[in-house]
Amino acid sequence: MDKEESYQRIIKARRILDELGNDCKIIEDVSFFQGDWLLLVDLKNRGKVTSDFPLMTSWYIRISIDYPEGGITFYPAKKGGISKIYPHQSPHTPQNETSLFFASNLCLEQYEPGLKAESNDSNRLYHYVVQALEWIRRASLNELVRDGEAFELVAYPNDNRKKIVFAEQREQFLQWEKLTQNKGFCNIKVGSIEQNQHQKLFYITDFFAGSTSYKKADKRIMSYKWGNYVAGEKSGEQKGVWLRLKNMPKLEPWQAPKTWHDLIILLKESGIDFKKDVMPLLNEIRDGLYHFMVLGFPIPMKFGDVNHEYFWQGISLPKLSNHQSANSYFKGFRKNKVGYEYVDMNNLFSKTNEITWVKSENWSENSLTSRGAITPKIGQLKYLIIGVGALGSTIAELLVRLGVTNIDVIDSDILKMGNLVRHRLLASDIDKAKAIRVHKRLSGSNIHYIGNYFAESLEEFIKRDLSALQEYDVIIETTGDDKLLNVLSNVDLKSLFFSISIGLGAKHLYVYSTSLEKIDEEMFSKKIQPFLKLDSEDFPAESFPRDGIGCWHPLFPARIDHIEILSGIAINILEEDLNKNKNYITVIELGKLGLVKEVMREQVL
Fold it and tell me: 2-12 in b/e burial notation, b at 16+ Cβ within 10 A?
């Protein structure tokens, strides 16, 4: 947008603020600032006037040059603004001493989600200021958070180059609550780093209790069940320190401890003495390397509720003193445990030494599928998918991304270049076993996926170990091969069974749900025969695409977008039939614009 045009829009928006009268006073008019506009205002406290929240506080409003689109952020001025951190406010980040404001903006969009919907409203600045006034009022009355609202962690300023991840759910919370230990070592697996990767990942895998407990089996008190992806990381492991607190570590009203002195005081409230309880742990990691400390504390799902899970907030420990440290630090002390502790308490953990917080996230199964997951009881079943071609690989990946973590895949085929037009795999997978490469892709689709692969035919699988089929709750066949139905119908097992296939041109989807002991291939074929006939009429054999020139065999005609649509429908049918615990033959017809309709839904007794 032209700068002059933008300026005129901002001036017009600023004039509308006059309607707020004494609640909003312009202290410094609009000026250009680092590519945006900056406006200094005094906002009135409509709530309780205190020393922390006087009657008027000063704020810098940063407004995008693309106004009314773009961002609008409120920062407390260093002169006349608030200095403490409250809920729905980002943490103070290091600023140049000449900076006019603290870089701790108000999270008004989170506080009032409707603001984002007003991106084209010329009165948008006015609406933001009104909401900022309400934020100030509620903050002064200690009403920014209310019972029943989603719980919000203290905003710990973090090192964006690193991220510590853990996997805590209700199950782990109940285990923690039974334990009395509150300190020890943890094992942290280092994630591999690739070019242009924003953050380096560190996975907590195990907790050990005590000061000499690292990797001792009898001292392990908690482990996370990560999937194949984390298990396959080869970048090494680190020894970390864990402390379990009674409450979330914070300074009032809602601020992360800034210095080690602040944290040491808070640890005492949880019965942890830094010198007595933490130093013995630190003495075990004086190896000249950097290590992590993680602080665990219980949190609820919503404010006012009982605690539901533990959160582990990471800290990057400073490099501890050791035998290689400069003699000048010791001032009469020897280079032994007493001397090391003296040096560290005075030089690393003093009143002025700031904490380096590390971004931490809960990557539990529930957390990662909170945006959309399959029915939990279905997600907990163990599956075998026979055939991971275009249809089978798509169904497998959809299930894994929906939260099904235990799926084995079986296929003896090799990926060919022509497969790429509708397969989930890539050019780097050409001439490699589909089962192996699909398994790798599934492992990367959900870090809790623990499935296996078998690069062989079903007949070879059964011949090698027929009893292995007993492990599976659900067997899904996606090849459309009648021979496989005959093979499976002769297996004396009660596993649930689904045959999922598509017709020529992906005009129809065929789903047959039953149990292995009741497979009736003849009945199924008879039921869907009319639709198969329609498919063949639309795609006569001579119209099939050919595999090269000369001696050739016909290729199955179907577009990837149609396979994707029908795969999603198949997942819904599978979920419905499993939830109902009933068997059906279902036929779905794909029409124009990707619209589908049910043309058969017949229960099988």
Answer: eeeebbebbee
For the residues of 188-226, what is the DSSP string, one character each? EEEPP--TT-SSEEEEEEEEEESTT-TT-GGGEEEE---
Domain ranges of the chain: 3-140, 159-367, 376-604
CA separation for the pair 393, 389 (Å, rounded)? 6
Q: What value does the mean pLDDT take over residues 498-507?
A: 93
Interatomic CA distance for residues 436 and 411, integer angstroms: 9
282 CB-near residues (< 8 Å, 6+ apart):
241, 317, 320, 344
Rounded to whole angstroms, the Cα distance separating 25 from 550 reads: 83
Strands (E), 525-595: 583-590
3-state secondary structure of 446: coil
Q: What pLDDT does 341 receive?
A: 93
For residues 151 and 245, what is the distance between their CA atoms, to the nearest angstrom?
Answer: 18
pTM: 0.90
Q: Are 323 and 313 in contact (CB under 8 A)?
A: no
Residues 406, 393: Cα–Cα separation, whole Å? 15
Please choose, from the candidates 452, 427, 456, the residue with its C-alpha nearest in 3D space to the C-alpha of residue 440: 452
Q: State the residue for tokens 């497998």.
A: 396
Contact criterion met (CB below 8 Å) for 135 and 106 = yes
Nearest CA to 507 out of 565, 546, 573 is that of 565
Fold matches, 3-140 and 376-604: no
| C-alpha dist (Å) from residue 305 to 148, 151, 240 | 7, 9, 31
Strand partners, 513: 498
CA distances from 536 to 88, 340, 434, 547 (A): 61, 82, 28, 19
Please say whether the structural domain 376-604 has been given the CATH code 3.40.50.720.
Answer: yes
- Domain 3-140 grouped into CATH 3.30.565: no
Per-residue pLDDT reduced to its tens digit, 138-181: 999 999 999 999 999 999 988 778 999 999 999 999 999 999 99
Q: Output the CA–CA distances (angstroms, integers) from residue 2 to 38, 120, 480, in the order listed.
A: 17, 17, 61
Around Cβ 604, how many Cβ atoms within 10 Å?
Answer: 15
- CB count within 10 Å of CB 52 equals 15
